[in-house]
Amino acid sequence: MNGKSTAISGEAPSHLSEWLPVVLWGAVMFTLSTSAFSAANTSRIIDPILAWLIPGISPVSLNVAHALIRKCAHFTEYGVLYWLLAHGPLAHRPYLAFAICVAYACLDETHQIFVPGRTASPYDVALDSTGAAFGGFLTSAVNELS
Question: Would you list the DSSP string of the chain?
Answer without folding.
Answer: --S--HHHHT-----GGGGHHHHHHHHHHHHHTSGGGSHHHHHHHHHHHHHHHSTT--HHHHHHHHHHHHHHHHHHHHHHHHHHHHTTTTTT-HHHHHHHHHHHHHHHHHHHHTSTT----HHHHHHHHHHHHHHHHHHHHHHHH-
